[in-house]
Amino acid sequence: MKYESYRSLKTVAIAGSTALMSTSSLFAATEDSLLQKYVIAGGWPMILIGLLILALIALCVFNFMNLSKTKFCPDDLKAGLMDHMMNCRVRSAIELGASHPSYLGRMMAYALPNVDARRPEDLGRDYVEDAIADFTINENRKSMTLINYISLIAQTAPMLGLFGTVLGMVGAFGTLASGDGSADPSALAGDISVALLTTLWGLVTAIPSLTAYFFFKNKLNNLVAECHHSAEELLNASIQTVNGDAHLAKIPEGVAV
């Protein structure tokens, strides 16, 4: 009895192993077939398109990590700067901004030294805004460099696809011309595969690249606009503190503030 059970168990184990090996072989054959059918059959231009896809993924990951609120306009830094500016501690605000690596911190450290206490009516707002504009031009150029590379991929990928199409068609006509009226169907199919697959993968690369370019560009613009709005609020807070009494004196009595 014990021997028969052992024999049955051994039979089931062998059958399971055989089925598992057959399934693995089937999946391996399917993967090889798909890889051969949709990638390798595209020829050597697929290598260049593959490099563009890898570059696109790397740029998207980097921009996704870099373009965040914590790296541009963090709430804790804005609260600290607002506290200093409302109490007209401009030097402390400069030191706090310089100690923070965010966009807002570096921008305020660059712009606030232009505050002019000899002009209490606006604290030299024009000079501060000019400094903010200069800082924005320099910093946006750095941030846009990696975003523009995504646009470059979006324009290059279809061109590589078109190049593969021309290459495949030239090969197809060459195959037709080399035969004596009966071209080799397998060779002709290989040339047509190069023509169509490179076009397909060129478009597959270009469409998400174009979407990612405008997504990250708009995200950068929104983050920079938020930093500018915060800087304006900080400067207005100090001006309001300095000219609070004068501002109230201009309001007719009986009008709610």
From TrEMBL:
Keyword annotations: Cell membrane, Membrane, Protein transport, Signal, Transmembrane, Transmembrane helix, Transport
Main location: membrane
GO aspect biological process, one term: protein import
Domain of life: Bacteria
Localization (cell): Cell membrane; Membrane
One GO term describing the cellular component: plasma membrane
Keyword Transport: yes
Annotated membrane topology: Multi-pass membrane protein
Pfam families: MotA_ExbB
Domain (MotA/TolQ/ExbB proton channel) ranges: 125-226
N-terminal signal peptide: 1-28
Transmembrane segments: 38-62, 146-172, 192-216
Family statement drawn from the similarity comment of this UniProt entry: Belongs to the exbB/tolQ family.
PANTHER family: PROTEIN TOLQ, TOLQ-RELATED
Protein name per UniProt: MotA/TolQ/ExbB proton channel family protein
Originating species: Oceaniferula marina
